[in-house]
Amino acid sequence: MDLSKIKTLIDFVGRSNITELSVTEKDLTVRIFGRSASPTAPGARVREPQGVSGTPTDAADAPENKAVAVRAPVFGILHRSPAPGQAPFVSLGEQVEEGQTLFVIEAMKVFNSIAAPRSGRIAYLTDIDGGEVETGDVLAEIA
Questions:
Q1: For 57-100, what is each residue's pLDDT tens digit?
Q2: Which domain does 7 fall in, by range?
Q3: Could you tell me the pTM of the whole model?
Q4: Does residue 28 share a domain with residue 75?
Q5: How far apart are CA 95 and CA 143, in angstroms?
Q6: Which of 50, 81, 114, 117 could cysteine-pair with 55, CB 3.0–4.6 Å?
Q7: pLDDT digits (tens, 9 = 90+) for 24-42
Q8: Is residue 45 domain-resident?
Q9: Predicted local confidence at residue 100, as pLDDT
Q10: Is 77 in the same domain as 127?
Q11: What is the per-residue pLDDT for 9?
């Protein structure tokens, strides 16, 4: 991996809300840590739990009958299906299971899977497909 690619990745992490990015190319792995929004101590890093993408901070505390918003964790291109011409991951009104892939967001040729934070029915689904989404945009709601 050349230095210019590493600098591009550092710039990307600096402009986004990503707290950590790991990229492997051949036998080299580069890990880049971003700034956390509210560190507990100077230089401390607050890390999100692994495997919980696109969930609001109160998703674990939400009652089962209240809709939970699934938000974009990063800026990028939203894909509602695994590949062009294929069926979308989910449809409005569909029952989903916790951990099921709902979307993929492409950011700098990195594909980030967005998983359901809990089981439930899709009550709202964005109509964006192949377009840009901003960090924090509501992509779906699970009731």
A1: 444 444 556 889 999 999 999 999 998 899 999 999 999 999 99
A2: 3-33
A3: 0.56
A4: no
A5: 9
A6: 117
A7: 887 777 778 776 544 443 4
A8: no
A9: 94
A10: yes
A11: 79
